[in-house]
Amino acid sequence: MNLSPAAIAITRLLPESETMLDIGLRLAVAVALGFVAQRLLFLIVRRSEIWIEKVGRGKVLAQQRARTIGQIFRSLFTTVVAGAVFLYALSVMGWDVRPLLATAGIAGVALGFGAQTLVRDVIAGIFIIAEDQFGVGDLIEVNGRSATVEALTVRCATLRDFNGFLHFVPNGEMKIVTNRSRGWNRVAVDVPIAHDEDVDRALDVCREVAGAMSRDPAWKDRLLEPIQVWGIDVLSVQEVAIRLVLRAEPGPAVHEAARELRRRLLRALSENEIRLVAQREIVVASTPEVGPSSETPPAPDARAS
User: Fold this and answer.
1) For the chain, how far is it from start to end, CA to CA, in angstroms?
2) Domain of 161?
3) Distances from the Cα of 276 to the Cαs of 197, 202, 283, 286, in angstroms?
C-alpha cells in the first residue's frame, strides 16, 4: 500500500509499538508518583496549619494565618510537582531537556529585568506573609477602599467590598494598608442635645446608661473595658454633643455594641424628657401675585400739549 509523504513523515516520528507501550507506562507511573507526592506535601501543609493554630491557641487570627500560609504552599507545591512531571515526560518522549532548562534560565534572567513590576509584587507579598500584616478574613482598607481579604498569594490579594464587588490588588501597589481586624476597635457615639437643655442632667443620664450596659451580662464579656463618657465634644449655637466611647474586639461585636448603646441612650433621654437637637427647617414663603388693579398708574405726561 502506497502512503502519502505526510503519512510517511508522521510514521517516522512515532516510535515502535513496544517503545510506545514503555513510554505510556513510564508516563503513567510519573503521573501517579506526582499525584502521591502532591498529596504527601499537602498532608505536611495541613499538619503545619494545625501546628500554627495550636501555637496561636486557636484564635481567629492564628486560623487566618494558617489558611493563608497553607494556600500559598499548596499552590507552590502543585506548580513544582507539575513542572517536574512535565519535564520528565519530555525526557521520556525523547526530548533533551538540558537546552530547555538552559533556555528557561536565560528567560528567567530576562524576565527579571523586563517584569520588574511582577518581581516587586512577589517580594512585597513575601514580606506581607512573613510579617503577618494581614490574612484571609481580615477587614482592611487599602487605597481608600475597605474590603475583606478572600485570598492572598505572593503576587496579589483578592478583596471583596461591602457591595460584593471583587477587587484584585497587586501586592506592590499597596502603599498604606489599614488592618481593622487586629487587637481592638474603638467607636465614638455622639449624643446631640438641644443647646437650651440641662447639660449636667444629660451627662448624668448618659453615665447611667453607660454603667448599666457595662454591667449587663449580655454585653460585659463583649466589651474590653467599661463604656466611657468623655463629656461635651461639640458646643455650638444649635447643639451640644456629648461623646461616649466604647472599646471591643474587632468584628461585629463593636458595631452591635454601638447600636445597642444608641438605642438605650435614645430611650433614656426620651424618658427623662431631654430633647435632642431640633432639625432645622427652611421655609420658603411665596410672594402673592400682583393683580392688574394693584398696578401703579403711569405718571401723567408733563409736557404741554
Assistant:
1) 132
2) 129-179
3) 9, 10, 21, 31
